[in-house]
Specification:
It is an enzyme of class 3 (hydrolase). The protein is an alpha+beta fold and about 160 residues long. It contains 3 helices and 6 strands. α2 runs parallel beside α3. Bound molecules: tetrahydrodeoxyuridine.
């Protein structure tokens, strides 16, 4: 038996003020999207903004449903829209912000596992890492240089054929 160790690396910015200006702008887009989230059941609002290599910015937020599992996370709302509208564009970076309405958090909130799986599909398809920036309501922002870095032991198409 041997031990296999996998490491993930994050960079942490102390606040919005420390972000490079293009990332700051992307995060502000995510905040605007977060404020438009439809989350009447969880009251947990999430916004995502994607920068494409054609310069387009695509945003999305969580969309909930009375039939709970029919709702969709912000990250997937945004990345599926990008994939449907710009099938040949590459996603360069993604900013995410999330907070509970009743108890705002200032610690970075990472995308859920299902969203990481959806996001990594596009990273592998485009053969270019997607930089992920994630934040709570405000406060520190964590950066991952790729989705793969957030999703060790990825399930990808190589196992299907
Ligand atoms: N949610 C997201 O939008 N993204 C995530 O990565 C985690 C969770 C949403 C789904 C649901 O509307 C609410 O947050 C509470 O789970």
């Amino acid at each position: 038996m041997k031990e296999v160790k996998i490491e993930s690396k994050l960079f942490v910015f102390e606040s919005l003020a420390e972000l490079p200006s293009d990332v700051y702008d992307l995060m502000i887009n995510a905040v605007t999207a977060r404020n438009r989230a439809y989350a009447p059941y969880s009251n947990f609002q999430v916004g995502a903004a994607l920068l494409l290599d054609n310069g387009e910015v695509i945003t999305g937020n969580n969309q909930e449903n009375a039939s709970y599992p029919s709702g969709l996370c912000a990250e997937r709302t945004a990345i599926y829209y990008a994939g449907s509208q710009y099938p040949n564009a590459k996603v360069v970076s993604m900013a995410i912000t999330a907070t509970a309405k009743t108890s705002p958090t200032n610690k970075p909130i990472p995308p859920c596992g299902a969203c990481r799986q959806a996001m990594v599909e596009y990273e592998l398809k485009q053969d270019l890492p997607i930089a992920i920036y994630f934040m709570g309501e405000m406060g520190a922002i964590a950066k991952s240089e790729s989705v793969s870095n957030l999703l060790p032991f990825v399930f990808d198409k190589s196992v299907l054929f």
